[in-house]
Input
Amino acid sequence: MYTWYVPDGYVPADTDGRRPAMIGHEAIAILNDHQQEANLAVEVFYCDCEPMKPQRFVISPCRSCRIIIGAEYQLDGSLCIDVPANRPYSLKIMSDIPLHIQFTRVDTRDGNLALMSVMLHAE
Output
């Protein structure tokens, strides 16, 4: 089993309101470059309550996908994990095969916009 962690998650509720494409969100981008499907489980942790039950996803062989984090932020048909806005959270991502995973945050609360993106490394 391969495991990745994102300790600092936070989806802001506020946006500059210019258009739906400008909605702030967080996302997990996944690349499965293997010839077999990947069975993925994502667990969401909070500081003040029990974690969510793991949400399961299947990533097809030699494919990429994006999982949007947030209750109202599903964009362009991507998969989605329902996390409330304005509430800190952490992620534990597990897979049965090694994957390439990138975590991205888009913050639109300021008209200047902010983008943060990091590659995750498995334990």
In short: The chain has a mean pLDDT of 86. The chain has one domain: 2-120.
